[in-house]
């Protein structure tokens, strides 16, 4: 029995899940642990400004990644034994990312000119865009594809802790929000440098590809890009609209609740990231073992998400008191609504990013997200006046519910369920 338990612990899927959770701890849970310090030092208004800048940084990150984490992880998992093909593929991806950098900088300039909060704090956008560009250049997809998750976890843990130590040491007032953004961006630069050096040590030096090959990459990743960018556009536009209507104080309440939601929302992500390359290497057919694995994973994720939902709904008040402070009690309703979103996100994540992607139904998935994003955006516009900051979690409930219904329709229509 002991030997069987040891074998299970050493199984690549279990080990990779553990290391992805360690990486997740560095990216999100450490941030949650220092949230009581940040929220109390900055206060709701300054926290809202920092949160809005980080939201835009996330948009730049997703733009720069261009759907590569989905496509590239799957491709690396399939060609990992062919070093030459692997080097060519890496060269194509990095050339594409370099081409996207001017686009990211142009959008950052537009954000500074168009959004009032960013006009007053242009350095916030410059810092977050700088960090997002380097974070997008980190070849995390490479190490996920070859299933060396330990490397990702160690680098993120070490350098994120270094960034958070800078925050603890230097952040002293509500005027120090830029230091939080800079510390996180610097840690992203260090992670990128370490992983690039490690990857080069594995496959050797690679060369950037020609423009023709980059166009081929675009054709391969266009649906993966839409799958990642459409929800981000919908979410970012909604928050930017919110920032022009509500007060900075209310925006701070929103971001306080959103920080807690995001930390829990990503807790069940690492096991999905560990499972995806495994499923991709298995392949997919209507009658194989892959379908059974995904169904079991769906029930597992749903159970975890229900637990998170109940924890947030019934313990919203003490969570806010501990993590944010009494100044944020007005965010309690927002946090409870975010709790309702968690199980819906878990279901849509497994059905879409695991099931449809593994089955190569990327185009259908991107069409579903296009429809759901448009409906979600319309719902924000309709709800934002009467419900204020509650409009964002309400629109997410609509978005995720519609996504689930449409995915189930595609699965049943193609006999994939």
Any overview of this molecule?
It is a single chain. Helices cover 86% and strands 0% of the residues. By secondary structure, it is mainly alpha-helical. The relative contact order is 0.12. The model is unreliable at 1-10 (pLDDT under 50).
N-to-C order of helices and strands: HHHHHHHHHHHHHHHHH
Oligomeric grouping of the chains: single chain
Low-confidence stretches: 1-10
Describe the largest sheet.
Answer: none
Average pLDDT metric: 82
Please bin the fraction of helical residues. Answer: over 70%
The percentage of residues in β strands lies in: under 5%
Principal-axes geometry comes out as: globular
Task: Give the strand tally.
Answer: 0
Rg over CA atoms:
21 Å
**What is the helix tally?**
17
**Class computed from helices, strands and strand pairing:** mainly alpha
N- to C-terminal distance: 35 Å
Task: Walk me through the topology.
Blueprint: H1 2-10, H2 12-65, H3 68-79, H4 83-114, H5 116-120, H6 122-137, H7 140-145, H8 149-170, H9 177-203, H10 211-245, H11 248-265, H12 269-282, H13 289-314, H14 316-323, H15 332-358, H16 362-387, H17 391-413
Helix pairs in contact: 2-4, 2-6, 2-8, 2-9, 2-10, 2-11, 2-12, 3-4, 3-12, 4-6, 4-10, 6-9, 8-9, 10-16, 11-15, 12-15, 13-15, 15-17, 16-17
Quick structural overview:
By secondary structure, the chain is mainly alpha-helical. About 85% of the residues lie in helices and about 0% in strands.
